[in-house]
Amino acid sequence: MTTLEWSANEAMQTFGGAGYLQGTKMERIYRETKVLSIGGDSLEIMKDLAARQMGF
Question: Which residues form the Acyl-CoA dehydrogenase/oxidase C-terminal domain (predicted)?
Fold first, then answer.
């Protein structure tokens, strides 16, 4: 879990149900962190690419 995901989760705990209201900044941030975590970060992609080039 990245720092961004952890921060968004903690903020949702703080805001409670109000964090899920559509149109709020908290809802948007939380939703975007979930989308970003699906694709993986650039470091993970670069490690995978390096491993493939080395034959692993």
Answer: 3-54
Q: In this structure, how many other beta carbons lie within 10 angstroms of the beta carbon of residue 5?
A: 14
Give the other-Cβ count within 10 Å of 33's Cβ: 19
pLDDT tens per residue across span 9-29: 999 999 998 888 999 998 998
The identity of residue 6, as a single letter, is W
pTM for this model (two decimals): 0.58
Kindly calculate the radius of gyration of the chain based on its CA atoms and give it in whole angstroms. Answer: 16
Are 29 and 14 within 8 A, CB to CB? no
CA distance linking residue 35 with residue 17, whole number of Å: 20
Q: How far is the C-alpha of 12 from the C-alpha of 30, rounded, in Å? A: 8
